[in-house]
Amino acid sequence: MTPLLRWLGQVLVTLLVASFLIFTAMYLAPGDPATVLAGGADNVSDRTLAAIRAEYHLDQPFLVQYLLWLGDAAGGDLGRSFVYGQDVSSLIASRLGTTLWLALYAAVLTIVVGVLLGALSAVRRGSLDSVVSAGTALLAGTPPFVAAAGLIAVFGVGLEWFPVTGAGDGFLGRLHHLTLPAVSLAVASLATITRITRQSMADILMQDHVRVARTRGIPERRVITRHVLRNAVGPIATMAGMITAGLLAGTVVVESVFGLSGVGSLLVNAINTKDFPVTQAVLLCMVLAYVVTTGVTELVQQLADPRLRRAGNTRSGRASASAGDEHQAVAPQDAGAVS
Predict the structure, then answer these.
(1) Are the C-beta atoms of 20 and 66 separated by less than 8 Å?
(2) Count of Cβ atoms closer than 10 Å to residue 221 Cβ
(3) Any idea what the Cα angle at residue 227 is, between residues 223 and 231, rounded to 5°?
(4) In whole angstroms, what is the distance from residue 192 CA to residue 313 CA?
(5) CB count in 10 Å sphere of residue 86
(6) pTM for the complete prediction?
């Protein structure tokens, strides 16, 4: 089995398990979806509620409801919102741009600034290392909503450098409006990627091939870029992929604080109003985004690191050899049975 087929199988199994858990959680959540669809429990007859349940298959057993929803979702039909009265896929599509902008902006800030700080901390050491370590310890314990409140007070209200609401129009407008939300989202992740970069480079700096490169008179900048940072890319890339995937879920809080009309704020409103189709669809899309992002990260890491490619080929070769050995072991028995 090729790595791509194996990965697609893992994605399919993950989505099936996630879809079942999400649907079960929504099914067990308090509140009657039929009452929500009717606009409230006041002045609604039992006949009306029964008609609504029959129309939306709410009177069917749990597994039947799940299979009907799963079949529609597999066909691209995520249902209709109880609150907005629109297709859920259209609702998500109309807000997806803001969320992707915010998550990618935060990911770029996290990776660029985090790798730079971690590399400087590992190479320079001394007082700079102490300052970076103390700063990352502080940032790691800062929740996004606390960072957002501080940034709004200082840079939004006090200095008036950045707007505190809206997503902006055009590339520069979006860049300007989403700076404070992106920084709020990136704060805790920045500390993580800085620490991973520092530790990975510090370990490689202690290895023999780096000492040999220095004794041969290779310039220090070349030693750092070719022999240290290049070998530290593996764990940094893995952590960067996981952080990027996690930032998509983090937009739920930041979009609510800054009043952004994205998928995260849509999820919060859907939970508050018991809009079950929207909640189920958004959660399933977040799981899919996380799985795809981490899978692409692993694929890029294998392409960038020849050692991982060789390890994957070796595993595939061993699997093929085992299958061949089993076939050879079975073949004589079959031949004996025939004779």
Answers:
(1) yes
(2) 9
(3) 150
(4) 32
(5) 12
(6) 0.77
As a residue count, the chain comes to 339
Query: CA–CA separation, 50 vs 132, rounded Å?
Result: 62
Q: How far apart are CA 172 and CA 90, in angstroms?
A: 26
| Residue 34: burial class (beta carbons within 10 Å; 0-12, 13-18, 19+) | buried
For the chain, how are helix, strand and coil distributed in percent, rounded to 5? Answer: 80, 0, 20
Question: Would you state the structure tokens that stand for residue 117, as one six-digit string?
Answer: 């700080």
pLDDT digits (tens, 9 = 90+) for 174-228: 899 999 999 999 888 888 888 888 888 888 888 888 888 888 888 888 888 888 8
DSSP conformation letters of 257-278: HHT--SHHHHHHHHHHTT-HHH
Cα–Cα distance list, 196 to 191, 223, 306 (Å): 9, 20, 21
Sign of CA dihedral 145, 147, 150, 152: negative
Spatial separation of the C-alpha atoms in residues 232 and 229, rounded to whole Å: 5
Query: Residue 160: which H helix or E strand, with range?
Result: none
**Mean pLDDT of all residues in 317-336:** 47
- CB burial of residue 135 (10 Å; 0-12, 13-18, 19+): middle
Separation CA 57–CA 61 (nearest Å): 9
